From TrEMBL:
<dbReference type="GO" id="GO:0008422">
    <property type="term" value="F:beta-glucosidase activity"/>
</dbReference>
<keyword id="KW-0326">Glycosidase</keyword>
<keyword id="KW-0378">Hydrolase</keyword>
<dbReference type="InterPro" id="IPR001764">
    <property type="entry name" value="Glyco_hydro_3_N"/>
</dbReference>
<dbReference type="Pfam" id="PF00933">
    <property type="entry name" value="Glyco_hydro_3"/>
</dbReference>
<dbReference type="InterPro" id="IPR017853">
    <property type="entry name" value="GH"/>
</dbReference>
<dbReference type="InterPro" id="IPR051915">
    <property type="entry name" value="Cellulose_Degrad_GH3"/>
</dbReference>
<dbReference type="InterPro" id="IPR001919">
    <property type="entry name" value="CBD2"/>
</dbReference>
<keyword id="KW-0624">Polysaccharide degradation</keyword>
<dbReference type="InterPro" id="IPR019800">
    <property type="entry name" value="Glyco_hydro_3_AS"/>
</dbReference>
<dbReference type="InterPro" id="IPR036962">
    <property type="entry name" value="Glyco_hydro_3_N_sf"/>
</dbReference>
<dbReference type="GO" id="GO:0009251">
    <property type="term" value="P:glucan catabolic process"/>
</dbReference>
<protein>
    <recommendedName>
        <fullName>beta-glucosidase</fullName>
        <ecNumber>3.2.1.21</ecNumber>
    </recommendedName>
</protein>
<dbReference type="InterPro" id="IPR036881">
    <property type="entry name" value="Glyco_hydro_3_C_sf"/>
</dbReference>
<feature type="region of interest" description="Disordered">
    <location>
        <begin position="610"/>
        <end position="629"/>
    </location>
</feature>
<dbReference type="InterPro" id="IPR002772">
    <property type="entry name" value="Glyco_hydro_3_C"/>
</dbReference>
<dbReference type="Pfam" id="PF00553">
    <property type="entry name" value="CBM_2"/>
</dbReference>
Length: 727
């Protein structure tokens, strides 16, 4: 971790020259806030005692970087937080420029009399997705399809490293929304339609922050449970709409994920734009203070959504009354985000008029400062450049590819069209076959995302070409022009183009667009079996076309590692994904959810796999009874020069495993001890087979083995796992 003397020098200089307006505490505080060995509570007490009202108001103010036209405003207005909204970017767009930008703004904050570092937030919702070259993971709906909370935690850890490498300390993620109506433009930001599934994926909070909470690991970034509460339950799926539920229903469907996140020590909660039975969440004291802070015991800070308080009175802009209502309801930090000067003035007026008690201001500051101290921002305020190189790293892309593999849901496979033979002559078509932008979706390089070659990655077509025996036998035409009966199969990659938030609301039809339908018609006319790969942020209304499709894979929004899709198409990974959302038979069924009595096209939790022996290119080293398994590695202890790891082998299939093996490249590492497995190493690769006592793994079950090793614990490649079902 890079230490900086900058902070202590600035404070020492200002103190010596008397340039600080800090009031010396009336009585000697239990600790000096600059003492990193002191208890956080004592540091907060000391700092609060030194702060002026303007210092405290500044801490509660979050400004969009693009609105800060004079960088010195960060110091002048004591801004406690800066964000980059969805369209925030830097030029040139790379990790180094982001880190330099962050450091320059942080130096402004450190130049203030008390030198309180600012905290910088961004929507890293499926990777450091504002940074060109970053690893882009599947959006949450695909991660929900993996049913693999441990994998999702590891993704959080990898994202935290890439975000830290850009200097940024705080991600506005995860969205713990329970999407109940697929018309909602943010359905893909949800892990699924049930509170149980969404709650299970709150493991990503530990990935972002560390298992010991904010600051518990060097790459820790503050996580945000959002959007509290009921954003996924609005009537008709209208974004920022009205959630019309009884309190019992609201608590049953939408509260559990937030309860889990709070228990995992999530550092911040973002308030939903939506309303509950007509009352705006941004002014809802019962839900924000009594339930979230009181009943759930949330001890982090509550941040508004983008200009969220402006909506309280139904008129544009914000007023002192709205400021008071929001902060008295329990908001601690306001994402203004543009007119921060007006906001600061209004907040000061509201406090001076007695409409916001000083106790509320102090409580908000205590919450914010506690997280800043826990994150270590006072000791390490500038970018830790040791993480900058992790942005888009091979190890992270491997992890993302594993997530893509596990997120694919096989919905139809008549006649065993899948897996495809790598020796086949293939025709690939569809607007999303060769389009990183489409396969990444919204919140990628810009708020709404957009089609095209927007960032480095592997498209589905590139994955196919890399997998086959002879790439010259793969023909691509976006519209299907040129196909004839000479092809073994056609792969049509179709679906939705990128969108975000309300612009993605679908109030009318939810089927494929005209281009896709025309492409599919062309392919079908050739008589060649068509495999449809659906790249979309939600289930689509495809029942009418389904009879013409021998095979269908829901790919969701896989991100930059399209090779994970081709891994499934060719059987290099047998599909294990399960639907995170009930799939409508008709758009007229929306909302449609598990156990609601309606008759869906595919049930929540549905997902096929390949029967053993369907491998079209039999691998001579593969036993006929091979079944897929997954192996995930967790570093449980690390020391200089070595580490201890635990590997969990999981059977995601439907058939009991009678044996397994996990293999991975060691790189420069050497295994010094291993238990609950039988190790062989050759050619720099470790292969661990089960011990006699842990070869049996029931469907959905797990077993573990562990090892110690010399070398770095960073960027461990995920082991490849092969299971066996023959005795
Ligand atoms: C947006 C979204 C929220 C996001 C915030 C900052 O409007 O509702 O999810 O974190 O603004 O970009």
């Amino acid at each position: 971790m890079m230490r900086t003397a900058l902070l202590s020098a600035a404070v020492a200089f200002l103190t010596l020259t008397g340039a600080t307006n800090a009031q010396p505490p009336a009585e000697a505080a239990a600790a000096d806030y600059r003492d990193s060995t002191a208890a956080v509570d004592d540091r907060v007490d000391d700092l609060l005692a030194r702060m002026t009202l303007d210092d405290k108001i500044g801490q509660m103010t979050q400004a969009d970087r693009d609105a800060i036209l004079t960088q010195s405003d960060v110091a002048t207005y004591r801004l406690g937080s800066i964000l980059s909204g969805g369209d925030g970017t830097v030029s040139p767009n790379n990790a180094q420029t982001w880190a330099d930008t962050y450091d320059n703004l942080q130096r402004q904050a450190l130049s203030t009399p008390l030198g309180i570092p600012m905290i910088y937030g961004i929507d890293a919702v499926h990777g450091a997705n504002a940074v060109r070259g970053a690893t882009i993971y599947p959006h949450n709906i695909g991660l929900g399809a993996t049913r693999d909370p441990e994998l999702v935690e590891r993704i959080g850890g990898a994202v935290a490293e890439e975000v830290s490498g850009t200097g940024i300390d705080w991600t506005f993620a995860p969205c713990l929304c329970v999407a109940r109506n697929d018309r909602w433009g943010r359905t893909y930001e949800s892990f699924g339609e049930t509170p149980e599934l969404v709650t299970s994926m709150a493991t990503i909070v530990d990935g972002f922050q560390g298992t010991g909470g904010p600051g518990s690991k060097p790459s820790s970034v503050l996580a945000t449970a959002k959007h509290y509460i009921g954003d996924g339950g609005t009537t008709n799926g209208t974004d920022q709409g009205n959630t019309q539920l009884t309190e019992a229903e609201l608590r049953a469907y939408h509260l559990p994920p937030f309860k889990e996140a709070v228990e995992r020590g999530v550092g911040s909660v973002m308030v939903s734009f939506s309303s509950w039975n007509g009352a705006k969440l941004h002014g809802h004291k019962y839900l924000l203070t009594d339930v979230l802070k009181g009943e759930l015991g949330f001890d982090g800070f509550v941040v508004s959504d983008w200009a969220g308080i402006d909506q309280l009175d139904g008129r544009t802009g914000f007023t002192g009354a709205e400021v008071s209502q929001a902060i008295n309801a329990g908001l601690d930090m306001i994402m203004v985000p543009n007119d921060y000067k007006t906001f600061i003035g209004l907040l000061r007026d509201e406090v001076n008029a007695g409409r916001i008690p000083m106790s509320r201001i102090d409580d908000a500051n205590r919450r914010i400062l506690t997280k800043k101290f826990e994150l270590g921002l006072f000791e390490h305020p500038l970018t830790d450049r040791s993480y900058t190189g992790t942005v888009g790293s091979a190890a992270h892309r491997d992890l993302a590819r594993q997530a893509v593999r596990e997120s694919q849901v096989l919905l139809k496979n008549d006649g065993g069209v899948l897996p495809l033979a790598k020796s086949g002559k293939l025709f690939v078509a569809g607007k999303s076959a060769d389009d990183i932008g489409n396969q990444s979706g919204g919140w990628t390089m810009s708020w709404q995302g957009h089609s095209g070659d927007i960032t480095p990655g592997t498209t589905v077509l590139e994955g196919i070409r890399a997998a086959v025996t002879d790439p010259s036998r793969v023909t691509f035409d976006r519209y299907g022009n040129g196909i004839d009966g000479s092809y073994t199969a056609a792969v049509a990659v179709v679906g939705e183009t990128p969108y975000a938030e309300g612009r993605g609301d679908r109030t009318g039809a939810m089927g494929l667009d005209t281009e896709d339908l025309q492409t599919l018609t062309r392919l079908r006319a050739s008589g060649v079996p068509v495999v449809v790969v659906l790249v979309s942020g939600r289930p689509l209304d495809i029942a009418a076309q389904l009879p013409d499709w021998p095979a269908l894979v829901a790919a969701w929004l896989p991100g930059t590692e399209g090779g994970g899709v081709s891994d499934v198409l060719f059987g290099d990974y047998r599909p294990t994904g399960k639907l995170p959302m009930t799939w409508m038979r008709s758009v007229s069924q929306q909302p449609i959810n598990v156990a609601d009595g309606k008759d869906p096209l595919f049930e929540y939790g549905y997902g096929l796999t390949y029967d053993a022996g369907t491998d079209p290119d039999p691998d001579p080293d593969r036993d006929p009874g091979d079944e897929s398994c997954t192996a995930t590695t967790k570093v449980v202890n690390a020391w200089s020069g070595g580490f201890q790891a635990e590997v969990t082998v999981r059977n995601p299939g439907t058939v009991q495993l009678t044996g397994w093996e996990a293999a991975w490249d060691l790189g420069s590492r050497t295994i010094t001890n291993l238990w609950n497995g039988q190790l062989t190493t050759s050619g720099g690769r470790a292969t661990v087979r089960n011990s006699p006592w842990n070869g049996t793994v029931p469907p959905g079950g797990t077993v573990t083995f562990g090892y110690t090793a010399n070398g770095s614990a960073d960027n461990l490649p995920p082991p490849a796992c092969t299971g066996a079902t023959t005795p």
